[in-house]
Design a protein that fits this description.
single chain, alpha+beta, 3-stranded antiparallel beta sheet, two-stranded antiparallel ribbon
């Protein structure tokens, strides 16, 4: 990936490029280069928001991805090369609205409760 132009509003680190079309003849987008294995809560908090932000954007522009993610968010992420720790769960809430939300939970051992780690939601704002 090339370096950012000097007038770039947002810099993109080389390790985390934006989602882009699959160059191997696929019709979809790639969320990550290669496979990403997140081993613990800190990895999830550090790396997953950027990846899920790309997924949330793809939900808006790619109907097929939206359908897959709505049915099985965890499986969709695995299919795109993002592997979470076993105690982490992704939920897609409000899939049919203008403000869908992706929530990541951590399941505690020997407990039926989940602890919210973070959530992402698109919010449209207008200004003048």
């Amino acid at each position: 990936m090339s370096t950012n132009p000097p007038n770039a509003l947002i810099t993109v680190p080389k390790a985390n490029p934006p989602a882009r079309r699959d160059e191997n003849g696929g019709s979809g987008f790639r969320l990550v280069n290669g496979d990403v294995h997140l081993g613990n809560r800190k990895d999830v908090q550090t790396r997953l928001p950027d990846i899920l932000g790309k997924a949330l954007a793809l939900i808006w522009i790619d109907k097929e991805f939206n359908d897959q993610f709505s049915r099985d968010p965890q499986g969709t992420m695995t299919n795109h090369g993002v592997h979470l720790p076993e105690n982490m769960v992704i939920e897609f809430q409000k899939p049919g609205t203008d403000r869908p939300r992706i929530v990541v939970y951590e399941r505690r051992p020997n407990s039926k409760f989940k602890l919210r780690v973070f959530y992402l939601q698109l919010v449209m704002m207008a200004g003048r």
